[in-house]
TrEMBL record:
GO terms for molecular function: ABC-type vitamin B12 transporter activity; catalytic activity. Keywords: Cobalamin biosynthesis, Glutamine amidotransferase. The keyword Translocase does not apply. Residues 262-432 form the CobB/CobQ-like glutamine amidotransferase domain. One of its GO terms (biological process) is cobalamin biosynthetic process. Pfam families: CbiA, GATase_3. Belongs to the CobB/CobQ family. CobQ subfamily. The gene is cobQ. The active site is at C341, H426. SUPFAM superfamilies: Class I glutamine amidotransferase-like (SSF52317), P-loop containing nucleoside triphosphate hydrolases (SSF52540). Pathway: Cofactor biosynthesis; adenosylcobalamin biosynthesis. InterPro entries: Class_I_gatase-like (IPR029062), CobQ/CobB/MinD/ParA_Nub-bd_dom (IPR002586), CobQ_GATase1 (IPR033949), CobQ_N (IPR047045), CobQ_synth (IPR004459), GATase_3 (IPR011698), P-loop_NTPase (IPR027417). Gene3D superfamilies: 3.40.50.880, P-loop containing nucleotide triphosphate hydrolases (3.40.50.300). This is Cobyric acid synthase.
Length: 502
């Protein structure tokens, strides 16, 4: 068995995904064969592996950090919310049904522990090290009995735990102490120490607090990572639409042409794979923003309807807010619109859905000659092809089956009609030549003197960002101590911090 480490967090969004990716990149640069792992992920941002399995995009990003091909073993359980109370359960890359939160935590989750431990064991058998990511907080005492992603997997696999805390939120010392003190004695025995994330300022001012924390818990802090802007990694949660997932949060390079291009992405409910627009945001002179009001489309050169886990619900939302009428008007004026996956389905003539919403037949926006019927079986694919004279790669994740009955031309298995494009392919804009050709088409239709930069390489930008994550770990964490944890396990004699789990 290879070594292992679980990166837990005091809260959601404490930085577990970033730290896990950073440790993976640091290790692989040292010549260590490493793989990421997250037993259970809840996310609408997913990816399709080469064998046709659906996993969280964060794990695909971490696999890129580790320079390995992503597989279903790295994220055996993926939950895709369909409402506030239920999610689609994806097991080993394939959907197996819908479950309410109560139904999942009332027994189904416990049944999956053997599956996730087997996946972790296989990764440890084939790699020198596996860096696991937890979910939420390990101190969610109401869910501990059925936990398979935090202390549940750590106990089952006997791997050490480092807890990450976001100091930018404040209260990080209380969070570290409280997280530890709410764990059982058996769970605490695996918590080796802490890692401070998103620190701003003089680290020497923090050191007395870290010493006091060690005195209170008997555990070391393995590093203080500085606040880093524009890390540009794939986000797990599509509800946060601040474009923090963009590769470049603020592009310093001026546009290559005389004009900029403005892109408005409709922030539909249950938005999925909003990372599709990251490649647009990486282009100098392209300004991408998420919108939810019709007036915000007025100055947009391109409007994007993104993917969604609830196509019919998102279509109703567009109509309720007046966004649907605004999109139809701009299409009639010959102003560019792009629909991706669920967005493509909404642009069609009609949707027959007895699977996702069970709403029956619903009229689409009627901007593309497409009829959509939802199938029980989900399409999971990694298509390749060409459009606008350029090679394109993408991935598909959808229940809707589109029948194209007209249009001006085929477009990535979808179609184009006038200045309206639609496709089921996620990730197509990451193909550099195609992205530039598409932006030239948008600029022409929008009457903008915008010229795509000739040297923007999205894959290279991603690699730069992953190297930045590795640098954060290498320069600001106690890497020797982390390596000992991974290779040797938890130090002996860690004290119990009362009161423990209730």
């Amino acid at each position: 068995m290879g070594g292992g480490l679980l990166v837990a967090g005091t809260t959601s969004d404490a930085g577990k995904s970033v730290v896990t990716a950073g440790i993976c990149r640091w290790l692989v640069r040292q010549g260590v064969s490493v793989a990421p792992f997250k037993a259970q992920n809840m996310s609408l941002n997913s990816f399709v592996t080469r064998e046709g399995a659906e996993i969280g995009r964060a794990q695909a990003m971490q696999a890129a950090a580790a320079r390995v091909e992503p597989t279903a073993l790295m994220n055996p359980v993926l939950l895709k919310p369909g409402s506030d109370r239920s999610s689609q359960v994806v097991l080993l890359g394939k959907p197996v049904g819908e479950l309410s939160a109560r139904g999942y935590h009332s027994g189904r989750q416990e049944q999956l522990l053997g599956t996730v431990t087997d996946c972790l064991a296989e990764l440890r058998r084939t790699h020198d090290a596996v860096i696991c990511e937890g979910a939420g907080s390990p101190a969610e005492i109401n869910l501990r009995r059925t936990d398979i992603v935090n202390m549940g997997i750590a106990r089952a696999a006997r791997i050490p735990v480092v807890v990450v805390g976001d100091i930018d939120r404040g209260g990080v010392f209380a969070s570290f102490f409280g997280t530890t003190a709410l764990l059982s004695e058996e769970d605490q025995a695996l918590v080796a120490g802490y890692l401070v994330n998103k620190f701003r300022g003089d680290v020497t001012l923090l050191e007395p607090g870290l010493e006091m924390l060690r005195g209170l818990t008997g555990r070391a802090t393995y590093g203080v990572l500085p606040y880093a802007h524009g890390l540009g990694i794939d986000e797990e949660d599509g509800l946060r639409v601040s474009l923090r997932g963009a590769v470049r949060e603020s592009v310093v390079a001026p546009p290559a042409g005389e004009d900029i291009l403005r892109v408005a992405v409709c922030a539909v409910p249950l938005m999925s794979n909003f990372t599709d627009v990251d490649a647009l945001a990486a282009e100098p002179g392209v300004v991408v923003r998420f919108v939810d009001r019709p007036e915000e489309l007025a100055d947009a050169d391109l409007v994007v309807l993104p993917g969604t886990r609830g196509t019919v619900r998102a279509l109703a939302w567009l109509r309720e807010r007046g966004l649907a009428d605004a999109v139809v008007r701009r299409a009639a004026e010959g102003r560019p619109v792009l629909g991706i996956c669920g967005g493509f389905q909404m642009l069609g003539e009609r949707i027959e859905d007895e699977v996702e919403s069970r709403a029956g037949t619903v009229d689409g926006l009627g901007l593309l000659p497409v009829r959509v019927r939802f199938a029980v079986e989900k399409t999971l694919a990694r298509p390749t092809g060409a459009a606008l004279g350029e090679p394109v790669e993408g991935y598909e994740i959808h229940h809707g089956v589109a029948e194209v009955v007209g249009g001006d031309e085929e477009f990535l298995d979808g179609c184009r009609a006038g200045a309206v494009w639609g496709t089921h392919w996620h990730g197509s804009l990451e193909s550099d030549g195609f992205r530039r050709a598409f932006l030239r088409e948008v600029a022409r239709a929008a009457g903008r003197r915008f010229v795509p930069a000739p040297d923007t390489r999205f894959g290279a930008l991603r690699e730069e960002q992953l190297d930045r994550l590795g640098d954060l770990i290498e320069e600001h964490a106690d890497t020797k101590a982390l390596l000992r944890l991974i290779e040797e396990g938890v130090p002996e004699g860690l004290p119990f911090v009362p009161p423990g789990a209730p």
